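Re: that backbone. Tokens:
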């Protein structure tokens, strides 16, 4: 396993780089790190140059000061990261949830770096007012109390009931990742997500192939919402993943990896 520490300007990002071939960039969700993609990294390093960073403030990447971590900031970090790794061909950009919010900004600002999008359990719409205010309240609470209180509630929302019952190891691992995350980064990303723009009207301009993946039991970004979103891209397909909630790549890696193989005509 190769973990590199890459300077993207004011911080160093920790990034797992494996394999060789066309580049596949795996962008994790909130409040997690690159290890949520372990099953994809294992399957795809034979066929791809797999690049799985920890976003600024998360995992082993350097932490940040208080404030807001915008989706734009994350997107620009990833563009610099690719330059630093000397990746000079467009990547398959695969993002989950917050990773998808970052994909919209990456498309707006660095579209020549994208050959294809894989969007897992995410949405293009901005937050409703009630959700936005909930994020601000949660950010304040995290700064005052730490992240521990978040974990149980998040676990319930991220994973399907069947995963929580049958695959306690992956649930425990992700809960541990959350517990280790800095309250400052969690609060800053909550502000960043609250203030992200509605990208729904932009989807018709995304002219690369798009795979939309959704866990059948996702309670955060529902299959109905994601299927409606998929219909707005010029070239897209929608894939419902059985036995999975919001963390589909982790909960049913076989089915998600099959979608990735369809997307690339490569067999893992
Ligand atoms: C995620 O999985 O990244 C989060 O659920 C995103 C969000 O809170 O909107």
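Recovered sequence:
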């Amino acid at each position: 396993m190769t973990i590199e520490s890459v300077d993207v300007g004011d911080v160093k990002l920790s990034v797992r780089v494996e394999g060789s071939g066309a580049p596949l960039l795996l962008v994790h969700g909130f409040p997690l790190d690159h290890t949520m993609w372990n099953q994809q990294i294992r399957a795809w390093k034979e066929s791809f140059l797999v690049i799985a960073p920890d976003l600024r403030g998360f995992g082993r990447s350097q932490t940040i000061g208080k404030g807001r971590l915008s989706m734009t900031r994350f997107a620009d970090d990833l563009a610099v990261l690719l330059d630093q790794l000397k990746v000079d061909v467009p990547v398959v950009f695969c993002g989950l949830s917050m990773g998808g919010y970052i994909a919209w900004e990456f498309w707006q600002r660095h579209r020549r770096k994208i050959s294809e999008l894989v969007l897992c359990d995410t949405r293009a719409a901005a937050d409703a007012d009630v959700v936005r205010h909930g994020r601000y309240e949660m950010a304040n609470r995290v700064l005052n109390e730490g992240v521990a209180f978040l974990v149980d509630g998040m676990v319930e929302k991220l994973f399907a009931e069947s995963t929580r019952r049958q695959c306690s190891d992956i649930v425990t691992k992700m809960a541990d990742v959350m517990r280790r995350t800095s309250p400052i980064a969690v609060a800053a990303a909550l502000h960043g997500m609250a203030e992200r723009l509605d990208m729904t009207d932009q989807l018709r301009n995304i002219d690369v192939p798009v795979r939309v993946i959704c866990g059948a039991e996702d309670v955060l970004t529902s299959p109905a919402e994601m299927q409606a979103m998929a219909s707005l891209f010029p070239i897209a397909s929608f894939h419902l993943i059985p036995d999975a909630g919001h963390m589909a790549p982790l909960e049913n890696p076989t089915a998600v990896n099959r979608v990735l193989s369809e997307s690339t005509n490569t067999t893992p």
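Residues 29-30, 97-98, 193, 220, 246 surround D-malate (CB under 6 Å). The chain has a mean pLDDT of 95.
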